[in-house]
Write a structure and sequence with these properties.
single chain, 125 residues, mainly alpha, globular
Length: 125
């Protein structure tokens, strides 16, 4: 049972990591030119992965222990299991993905240039 739980937790983490990596790839180019966009995306991904690592490394020793990893997965599962029935349904999974996407946009698209924001406002007028 514990092994099955660990596999499930690791699968959930992999899904979360993949969604963090793939979401920006489909979000368009908020950085202007293609060259700037590629460099900007790389920097954004580096920063995002650094923050994720630091969040998982609770004791700050520069390494993620199995206990730290499993604790993070348990917390993630608990957040996703809205009805506390010890199962994550497809609906709960999709709701968590939608919430993650919303949080990702909030956190990682604040840095858009003023010029880009103004340009978007002008186009909308």
């Amino acid at each position: 049972m514990i092994t099955k739980y660990k596999v499930m937790c690791h699968s959930l983490l992999l899904g979360g990591v993949l969604s963090l990596v793939l979401t920006p790839a489909f979000a368009g180019n908020p950085y202007g030119s293609e060259e700037e966009g590629t460099a900007g995306k790389q920097e954004m991904h580096k920063e995002m992965h650094k923050k994720m690592f630091q969040k998982l490394d609770e004791d700050g020793d520069g390494k993620i222990s199995e206990d730290e990893f499993e604790e993070a997965m348990e917390k993630k599962f608990e957040r996703m299991d809205k009805d506390d029935d010890d199962y994550v349904t497809q609906e709960e999974w999709q709701a968590a993905a939608k919430e993650h996407k919303k949080e990702h946009k909030k956190e990682y698209h604040r840095g858009e240039t003023q010029e880009g924001s103004e340009g978007q406002q002008r186009e909308g007028m």
